[in-house]
Amino acid sequence: MIPSIATVCVSGTLVEKLEAIAAAGFPAVEIFENDLIAFPGSPADVRRICADLGLAIVTCQPFRDFEGMPQARRQRTFDRAERKFDLLEELGCDLLFVCSSVSPEAESGIDRLAADFVELGERAARRGLRVGYEALAWGRHVWDYRDAWEIVRRANQPNVGVVLDSFHILARGLELTSIGRIPRDRIAMVQMADAPLLQLDPLSWSRHWRCLPGQGDLNLSGFMDALAATGYEGVLSLEIFNDRFRAGSARSVALDGHRSLIWLLDETARRLGRPLKGAVPMPPPGPVEAVEFIEFAVSETGRPALEGVLAALGFSRTGRHRSKDVALWSQGDIRIVLNSDAEGFAHSYQITHGTSVCALALRVPDARAATERARALRDVPYAGAIGPGELDIPAVRGLGGSLLYFLDQASALGGWSAVDFEPVAANVAPTGLTHVDHISQSMQYEEMLTWLLFYSSLFETRKTPSQAVIDPGGVVQSQVVESGLEGGTGQGLRLILNGSQSHRTLSARFVHELFGSGVQHIAFATTDIEATVRQLVANGVAMLPIPENYYDDLEARSDLPPEAIDRMKALNILYDRDASGEFRQAYTTLLDGGLFFEIIQRDGYEGYGAANAGIRLAAQARLQPLEAPVFGEAGAAPE
Ligand SMILES: O=C(O)c1ccc(O)c(O)c1
Ligand SMILES: [Mg+2]
């Protein structure tokens, strides 16, 4: 299948849209009619611009309210069609895209509608053009692709086919097997869109909430399987009407779009167990086995403070880099790299963002394969300067310009800590932290779908529906992405992506005051949170104070013994439970740099304490009033 995208998907003027689409590597484009009408030049100019950019024009759509017009209006409708044919010829494309009529004047009757397509097909044939017919989910008489196909079948013109748009079909919950019975040469083109499940009328849902394949909840696999059964090899074009995309960067949305189609074709071919025309060869997605290390960029002057916090959390410096000003800190199965080198990536990152997480290293089954897959998905590879004898750890660009490293145990990469670091004896008593439970990344609201797609296309992942969390400064959308949790060989990866439209939430203030998206908090696991927190407090760690009301409420709504609640209250531990088990969590206060840590004890529980998130955010807001900058000098005045 040939990847394509409609100009309506991205922001900007027509030329900006086309440039972004070409830069993302698309070979073909659908021009949305409004973009052409608003363009201050001729269709021939658009044709030239597209040709220069290497973009084939698939169609200029839609052509509305065509079929079923009463006799008095019918002639005028064909006159309109002839004018549209002129336009298509000028643009150098051959497909008239008709969407089903929404006109209150439109008449029904399947043979009556088929007769309109007989005449339209004959007129198109005289000019060497084709016609495609799409059933809009809110069409007046035709809103089911099976009816559109029956009309096209009865019209019986070789140059008239159906357009299948995944949104209209799946939004209506239509069965999909009938797709497989449409002859492939009668499918004029296919449009792809996903969407989150919402209780909305189809029109509002379609015009504002469509998203890229993999970003929503529709059964695109079922759609693709049925489509593949036809043997269709034509255009697969993204048609996404989405308010976030209209506000976002055209280049980024176009690139995400291409990535989503590459992912969709790969996934479909894998599920079907056979090659699919147009699919890019790449290694299969694998699980993330564990977070191998977390790297902080920190200046020489900022380092003592961060080292102090790590030591108080029970981390020891266990390695000294052989050639750079970099140290390895560890506890249990957690490894933290502090990079203060005066050159290189971490240094530039620190200058821009202050003390912050500049890289995450993920353990995967095969690092080379993960890198190859990232490349095929058009992720951006990164190659840094390697010192003599140092390992060349493969990496791609991640959120906010940070890096995502891939490591495995099968290759030499497994020995990264011994190769790059000279061991130092541990000198701090551990506090019972065992591993990284999860990492939360804050980002612009408009970026959330980008990073959801980034992780979910690259790895074998599971996502849970996005949740709204209430911060005293506004609403934060929170999206969980997990990998490698079931039957894995490590702790897997749990990520929380946070974004908010309000500028006053803690998440948004982090992004704005620290000049970009990034890791805002890291949760470490313990098997005995009370002992751990007691030790942290003794070490001088300031824990986030939780109000008494929380514990009164907990007592009222849970069957926990009062002594247990008193112990949690004394240690500022929050509690949750679900059908699978119990959960306890506590937070440190914010560090300079806006980052904070969480301590977690899971006993079977698989969630993240969403019920407590509002309590935590209110407690943080009390300590960081909205009027004051949150993040101290690190964020306000980067060195
Ligand atoms: O929302 C619309 O009007 C509209 C127009 C053209 C399409 O292809 C479509 O799927 C929807
Ligand atoms: Mg459509």
TrEMBL record:
The protein's superkingdom reads Bacteria
For activity, the cofactor(s) needed are: a divalent metal cation
Q: Name one GO molecular function term.
A: metal ion binding
Instruction: Summarize where a divalent metal cation binds, as residue positions.
Output: 134, 165, 191, 239
**Function recorded in the entry:** Catalyzes the conversion of 3-dehydroshikimate to protocatechuate (3,4-dihydroxybenzoate), a common intermediate of quinate and shikimate degradation pathways.
Family listed = Belongs to the bacterial two-domain DSD family.
* Descriptive protein name: 3-dehydroshikimate dehydratase
Species the sequence originates in: Azorhizobium caulinodans (strain ATCC 43989 / DSM 5975 / JCM 20966 / LMG 6465 / NBRC 14845 / NCIMB 13405 / ORS 571)
Q: Specify the taxonomic lineage.
A: Bacteria, Pseudomonadati, Pseudomonadota, Alphaproteobacteria, Hyphomicrobiales
